[in-house]
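Repro:
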Amino acid sequence: MLKDKVEYYNDLLKDKTPQDVLSFFYNEFNDKIALSSSLGAEDQVLTDMIAKHARGMRIFTLDTGRLFPETYSLISRTNDKYGIKIHIMFPDYKSVEKMVKDKGINLFYESVENRKLCCHIRKIEPLKRAFKDLDVWVCGLRASQSVTRQNVHIVEWDEPNALIKINPLANWSEDDVWDYIKKNGVPYNALHNKGFPSIGCQPCTRAIADGEDIRAGRWWWENPETKECGLHKR
């Protein structure tokens, strides 16, 4: 079983570069592996690495319908630079319509439960459709991103989705990410230059002040311990 190989893969790849990790898993799983890109800085780094070391690996993103204009622009710029087509997954419109009718257009500000419902309909459900026929999910998680991600490993087992999840940048720092972007001319979201280190849906993301945690601008009205949408259950 795939789950039984996680420890083996971690031991095998513990001293390898992110490029090595991506190349290894692409050669192992081919059309059964894909990058789920949030279009954040980390995922843009992974997209660049995939284009150079695992070309042909599928890349998809989730369009929740509430993204920033700058994010849509980045999709286009990224496709043009690398000669690729990022596949875009959309939420089920009937589910969105019912949620908005029942709870209101900005329901997420009212409770954690409402916010998680919105995330489930706009993100989790489309993600599960994207996972169909996949064995491996590539993510841009880093251990130093937040308190909810401190125990991230390069290779993990994602129990809810029955997939291997790989985090090639698990041990990278924020500086490592931006050094790579600058050295390699990787396209990135213009909002990063305006105080947005982590970018999600427009109503749920704000710029942060100097000294704040890099994910402080995500669901800023909630406690740090709840600041996950459900994509990365730990």
